[in-house]
Amino acid sequence: MPIKPIIKRLLILRYKYISQKNFVFLLAMLIGLLSGLVSVTIKNITYAIQWGLEHLVIVSANSIYFILPVIGLWLVYLFVKYVSKQHIEFAIPSILFSLSKKNGFLKRSKIYLPLITAPITAGFGGSVGLLGPAIASASAVSSYVGQLFHVDRKTRTLLIGCAAAGAISSIFQSPIAAIIFAVEVFSLDLTFASLLPLLIASVSSVLTSYFFVGNGVLFNYNITTPFALKDTLFLIVLGIGTGIASIYFTKIYFAVYKFFERFKTSGQKLIVGGLAIGVMLYFIPPLYGEGFGFINDLLGGNHLHALGKTPFDDYLDNIWVVIALLFGITIFKAIAMTTTFAAGGAGGIFIPTMVMGSALGNVMAKIINNIGLGFQVSETNFTLLGMAGLIAGVLHAPLTAIFLIAEITGGYQLFVPLMITVSMSFIIKKSAIDHTIYTKELAEKGELLTHDKDQSVLTLMKLDSVIEKDFTVLKPEMSLGKMLHQGVAKSSRNLFPVVDENQYLVGIILLDDIRTVMFDQALYETTSVETFMHNPPDYIYYESDSMKEVMRKFQDSGAWNLPVIKKGNYHGFVSKSKLLTAYRRELINFTS
Questions:
Q1: Which of 105, 149, 169, 498 could disulfide-pair with 175, CB 3.0 to 4.6 Å?
Q2: Given a cut of 80, is residue 64 above it in pLDDT?
Q3: Cα distance between residue 76 and residue 121, in whole Å
């Protein structure tokens, strides 16, 4: 049976019997269920690929396993080039862009593409995570559901937040952290109207995960060493370390991408990236795959198993060699992850961030315990705190970091240490780099929604909606008499753009500029438009100016109208009155 008639009947029943608030609750529950299914699907596909490789290809052999990520990249490359024929987009940035500039509409193809490209990349050992692709697929599902049920933009945004919360809740089985992530990263308002749908989606998603994969925890760890006041200084040092590491993570991400820009074809990027990944995996095997096993080994105190088989096995009885190898993971995880992306792979950065943080935290604890000064801290606690510090710094999500680790450990015994480490890391990273990997490019283009309502409203506004084109255009060679008869007499505006034969704006004329001479007939044939025209106070450039920049230009110039230049030519005017009216209307819609 076709789906449209069913949806039509459901909409009729909804308008008759279900209030808007309850309808949003039902949609949130549905989105949570679907997000859980998406997360379970993407994990199971990945695990199936890994199982097949382990049993059929003997992944444990060093001579084979580091080649597998290259094969995975080739498969993704072939799929993108010959099947999907769509470039791989990064999950969170593409969603944030759709929220700010596309009213929350996502392509339907994004429902299934991440379910194919990400499992291939991660299943073959690509150094990426699955959370980002799961959020991308779940968000596309929520966007499609929103379109089917004709919800408005604000509700569509909330449903995408529900999808993100559902994906995180399902993967980490941490519903509270999932809600906070949606609020911090997607800039949702933390009100009762948004909190309850997020809670419903998060709970329904985690229940879906329990139904299909059981209630086993992702990380096996119970806190045995409580917080001690004497550890405060070390926690501050860890916070500073994770803050610096977060800066490094962000800078190396963009540096690697810039390096790969020199290669013109996807094939060249794949070959160079594949070789680089292979070399890194040969010397540092834990870079292989997502890294959940690596984190669990560190939490279990088994750093030798976490490191796996390396060329340095004969020296692992020396703790400083172990520390050096773990620090190498801290350094090279970001490089391996970004190289995988730049070479054409698909995945997320959340879980690699956790891997890098766990290694750094463990390294710092080992240094403190073995430096010979008699200090002793919990290596497993510092492993968890390092994860939280990196999440807070790299993603600018401090509350998500705190509650995620608290839920992973099943309690709040580490709450104070988490607050110390996370706050230090966040402050250092935020002071050095104002935006995250997710938001940097969008912020530079003025396309990022934030918790600043004024800024968000300006981001949501579209320049086309305030451009007016009902102005009588004049030519510079026109006589005063011709201008009065063909321009002023037929126009209801008191402003006239002057353009040349190429439609280039050469000046403007205000009615006040000719008021004193417009009745002097002796000047009708002896003077021209060029005599009276002058430059506008400023220009609005259609291709480059954001609405925030437009507002600033009006404020700085004091003008009531500013011309719009598109591709070098005159395109119309924006009036301050229409701009402010549109702003007030958008603000009411945004906050209601």
A1: 169
A2: no
A3: 7
Taking only the tens place, the pLDDT of each residue in 527-548 is 888 888 889 999 999 988 888 8
Total length of the chain: 592
User: Residue 564 forms beta bridges with which residues?
Assistant: 540, 572
Taking the C-alpha atoms of residue 342 and residue 348, their distance in angstroms, rounded to an integer, is 13
Q: Which residues are paired to 573 by β-bridges?
A: 468, 563
Q: CB neighbours of 326 closer than 8 A, spacing ≥ 6?
A: 303, 306, 307, 359, 362, 363, 366
- What SS3 state is found at 129? strand
- Residues forming a β-bridge with 565: 541, 570
Give 353-383 as a DSSP string: HHHHHHHHHHHHHHHHHHSSSS----HHHHH
Backbone angles phi, psi at 401, to 5 degrees: -60, -45
297-329 pLDDT, tens digit per residue, is: 898 888 888 888 878 878 888 999 999 999 999
Rounded CA Rg of the chain: 29
Instruction: Please report how the helices 576-591 and 153-172 are oriented relative to each other, as an axis angle in degrees rounded to 10.
Output: 50
CA–CA distance, 477 with 530 (Å, rounded to integer): 6
Give the DSSP letter of residue 474. B
Is a pLDDT exceeding 80 seen at residue 15? no
β-pair type (569-575, 467-468): antiparallel
Contact 99, 146 (CB under 8 A): no
Entry pTM: 0.82
Pair type for strands 540-541 and 561-566: parallel
